[in-house]
Amino acid sequence: MAASASSRKNFIDSSLSMITKYGFDGLDIDWEYPSRRDTVYGSADIDNFTTLLKEFREAFDKKKLLLTAAVSSVREAASQSYNVTAISQYLDIVNIMTYDMHGSWDAVTGHNSPLFKGEGDEGAVAADLYTIEQALAYWIGAGCPPEKIAVGVPFYGRTFTLSNANVNGVRAAANGAGIAGPYTATNGFLGYNEFCNLLQTESWTQRYDQLAKVPYAFKDYNWVTYDDANSIALKVDYAKSLGIDKIMIWSIETDDFHGLCGYGNNPLLNAINLALDSSFTTNRPSSTSSPDATTSNSDSSSSSATSSSSSLPIPTPAASVTPATICKGGLYVPKPGDCTSFYMCVVKADGSYEPLEVKCSNGLHWDQTILACNYPSEVKCKA
Length: 383
Description:
Layout: H1 5-22, E1 26-29, H2 44-61, E2 66-71, H3 75-78, H4 84-90, E3 93-96, H5 132-141, E4 149-154, E5 156-162, E6 174-177, E7 189-191, H6 192-201, E8 205-209, E9 214-219, E10 222-225, H7 229-241, E11 246-250, H8 267-276, E12 315-317, H9 323-326, E13 332-334, E14 341-347, E15 353-359, E16 365-367, E17 372-374
Helix pairs in contact: 1-2, 7-8
Domain Chitin-binding type-2: 324-383
Enzyme class: hydrolase
Pfam families: CBM_14, Glyco_hydro_18
């Protein structure tokens, strides 16, 4: 379609007809991917995609419609598909799909959406890493204005089958897709709502990659990479540090919208909204300056095998605190005099904030530097 002027016009005209009839705000182009996979035109796709967007822009400007596109994230892939500077001038929002960076197609375990390089990435060339940090560095460096970028955040995890149940860290050997969820029903894929329920009802060992700033978990031969409210808030805060103020979600129906896991309804969406709120100043994550940057919680000894290091425990309404005071401290605030608890500020329907008191799992302390419950030896806290 994109290679033919008449086909492009037909597609644009028919899109406009549908958008106008049903009152949509615009159109998101999701071409996966120009010049790759099943292409028959090869590198000509790059210019054809740009031309398609240019012609859409001319038609949409007349009706004040939005034009967005979902694009490949990492340098290795994106550099083959787009003239970044050219497409950026025609798009209102560039939705960068910063997820599916690793999955069951890999021979070893890896994070679905790591913020920074993590465990097992020692010695890797930074520009070649599949991380949000490097993806955004590429897109901004290639000419995409930060104010047009929306960072993709996954509301799902990727699952692997371990080759050896006793070798269960990041970059452990794997034999393809792992467990499927009861609703998404796809091996290698679990909605957050599905997995948070498993964590409540089954005995999983949870770990937190302090370098990549994301959790993972394993049980027998099953290994899962996922995001929770903590890791998502850190992703948003990092995006904000680059001048990015938009988040794209894939996909909203796998949030815990019924609140069955004990964190309230839509905990991931709430985490995004709270982190985007400019009234908060959270601890900005750094790939180099964090005191935890050279430490990883990959110990698989029995003493830590049942500890949860990043998933938020069950929150309860905070007693005898003033929301206006507590919630000025950030998204997550330490509880004074109690190393094992913290406050999570949740937005209410009227726009005000309610501090919920959260207690870490047994044996863990709240770590304000990584915004997660952590092992006491890694936390500086005096009760």
